[in-house]
Amino acid sequence: MIPTIRDHRSVRNFETGRTIPEELVERLLEAAVRASTVGNMQLYSIVITPAGSPVFGELSPCHFNQPAATGAGLLATFCADVHRFSQWCRQRGAEPGYDNLQWFVNGAIDALLASQNFSLEAEANGLGICYLGTTTYNAADIVRILRLPRGVVPVTTVAVGYPAEPLPGLTDRLPLEAVVHRETYRDYAPEEIDRLWAAREASDETARLLAENDLPNLARIFTERRYTTVDNLHFSQAYLDVLRAQGLFEFELKEPSEK
Amino acid sequence: MIPTIRDHRSVRNFETGRTIPEELVERLLEAAVRASTVGNMQLYSIVITPAGSPVFGELSPCHFNQPAATGAGLLATFCADVHRFSQWCRQRGAEPGYDNLQWFVNGAIDALLASQNFSLEAEANGLGICYLGTTTYNAADIVRILRLPRGVVPVTTVAVGYPAEPLPGLTDRLPLEAVVHRETYRDYAPEEIDRLWAAREASDETARLLAENDLPNLARIFTERRYTTVDNLHFSQAYLDVLRAQGLFEFELKEPSEK
Q1: What is the spatial distance between Cα B227 and Cα B233, in angstroms, rounded to a whole number?
Q2: DSSP output for B4-64
Q3: Read out DSSP for B115-140?
Q4: In this predicted complex, what is the ipTM?
Q5: How far is A70 from chain B (nearest CA, A)?
Q6: pTM flag (> 0.80)
Q7: Which residue of A lies nearest to B28 if distances are taken between CA atoms?
Q8: Is B171 close to A255, i.e. CB distance below 8 A?
Q9: Residues of A with CB below 8 A from B188's CB?
C-alpha cells in the first residue's frame, strides 16, 4: 500500500509556532490540483489561512477552538466554487446555469478529492493533518470571515502542522466487510451488526469513554453526547440556509407538499 | 510530490476482458478505509461490481454507456451511508438522528475521501481509473439496481481497469493561483479571468472543439453542449428526490416561503 495512505492518522497536537515554509505549501497545493475534477472545470477554491494572521484567530471559534484548529500552522478551507467558472462563462456571453444542488455536489466532489491529495502530500512531507468536520456546522460564519462570494460554500477544512511527538496510533476501523458490498448492497442481519462492532465495543478505549460519560454503551455516547438529534437538525438547517444564501439551491421545481 | 498523485490522469480506455485479481481489489479497499472519516463513524459503503456480472450491465446505462464504464474491469460505487451506523444505534437502544442534510454531507465527505485513497492505490498498482460524474445524475436508477436501502445514497463511482496503451497525457489545469486564495477569498477582476483561461482558450484542443461544435468560444461549449441549464435543473431535482426518498433530507424546519 502507498506508505502515506497506510500510515495516516489524524494529528490534533501540533508544534506551536512552527511555520510551514511557503515552498512546501505550494507543493501541497500543486498536489491538490492534480486530483480529478468534474469536466475539468475545477469547481473549487482553497483558502489558505496561516497561523498568526488575524483571520486565523477569527476562524478558531468556527471550529469550536479545538486544539487541532488553534494549534495548526495553517488552515486550508476547501470550498465548492461555481462562482469563478460562472464569471468566466458570463464574460464569454455564455449563460451559466450552475446555481443548483447538482453543481454544489459537483463542487463538493472536486473540493474533497483535492483535499485528500493535499492531505496525503502534507503527510508525505512530515506534516500532520486533521480534517475539521466543524466546517459544515458553522459555514455561515466561515463564509463571512473568508468573504466567500455567492456561488462559494465551505465543505471541509484541513488543519496542517508539524506533529508534536509522540504521534497517535492508527485509528481502529470496522472490519473491511462492514463497508464493502459485492455486486449489490446486502443488508445487515442484527447479529452481523453485533459482530462488526464487537472489537470496538470491547476495547479499553470504549471502557474509558463509558466510565467518563456514565452511559451503558458506546452508541449512546454518539447519540446523546457527540451528535444529538437537536444539533443535527440545527446544523442541517444552518447548512441549507448557507446553500440558499450562497445561491446553490436555486432550483426547486417542486416542493414536497406538491408531490 | 507523491509520484502517483503527480502522474494521475483519467483513463477511459481499458484492456477489455482483463480481470482485476481479488487480492488487488482487497488492497484498494484496505487503502480506502484508511482515509479520515467523520468521528470515525465510517458513514459510507463501497459497492464493487465486477465486469461480466449482470448488475454491471445494468449499471452501464446509468453512466450513459460511456466507454470508461462499459470497458472497466470493475465499478466501485461510493455511497454516503447512515443506515449501517443507525442500525447499530437502534440495536443498542440509542436513538439515531441522522436522516438529515448534515449527515448526508458527512457521509459524502467520508465516501469521497475513501474514493480518492482507493483511486490512488489503484494507480500505484498499474491500474487506471476514471471518476464517473454521471453517478449523481442517475442516482435513482443506481439506488434501484444496487438495492440501496433507505439511508444510503450514491455519491460517485470509480471505474477501474488496466489501461489500454497509450496512456493519455496529463490534463491541463488552470494556473495554481486560479484556485488558491490567501487568508481570505479575493474576487476576480475581469482581466484576471481572461488571463487565467488564456492558455486553455488558445490551445489546439479548444480549436478542435470549436470547429466540431460550431460555437465561437469554449465557455459556450460548456453551457450549450455539455452542461445545459435545463439538464442541471433536471438533475438537481432528481438528486434532491433521491435524498428525500432515501431519507436524508428529513429535517426542513422552515421552508423558504416562511422566511
Answers
A1: 10
A2: HHHT------B-TTPPPPHHHHHHHHHHHHTS--GGG---EEEEEEETTSHHHHHHGGGGT
A3: HHHHHHHHHHTT-EEEEEGGGGTSHH
A4: 0.96
A5: 15
A6: yes
A7: A1
A8: no
A9: 84, 87
